[in-house]
Amino acid sequence: MNMVLRDHFFDSFFNNFGVYERDTSHYEVVENEGSFDIHVELPGIKKGHLSLKVHENHLSIKADNTVESDSNEKLTRLNKRYEKTFKLPVSVDQDKISSTLEDGILSVKLPKYKEQKPKNIDIQVK
Q: Fewest CB within a 10 Å sphere: which of 19, 42, 112, 125?
């Protein structure tokens, strides 16, 4: 297993797995033989406040957990927002991406396409 912790040092080395982010939450990208796995720390975020989308070879993770309460004439506001966009390598099979949320950790599995062997194609003469 090859573990890659994403930071600015790696951005130039791993150009095919670029990251665009708006916050400083911790995450890691792990490359296995058959997949890339992304793990993001999202403490206090529930499934209903979280969205994952794949569009044009990018995976976007967004979370908004804004809570407001008015008790004893004091306004309390809790605001947790996360937004990350990962540029996906061409080897990711986007139709098979899956995710789980457990104990404040979002895990996203990005399966790689199965390696295809070269295939001879017959040439038809007309």
A: 125
Q: Is the residue at 81 inside a domain?
A: yes
Domain assignment of residue 120, yes or no: no
Q: Which one-letter DSSP state was computed for residue 122?
A: P
| Mean pLDDT in order along the chain per 10 residues (126 residues) | 42 47 73 93 88 93 74 60 89 94 94 83 90
The SS3 call for residue 117 is coil
In this prediction the pTM is: 0.67
C-alpha–C-alpha distance, residues 87 and 51, integer Å: 17
Domain count, the chain: 1
Burial 83-100 (b: 16+ CB within 10 A, else e): ebbbebbeebeeeebebe
Residues comprising the chain, all counted: 126
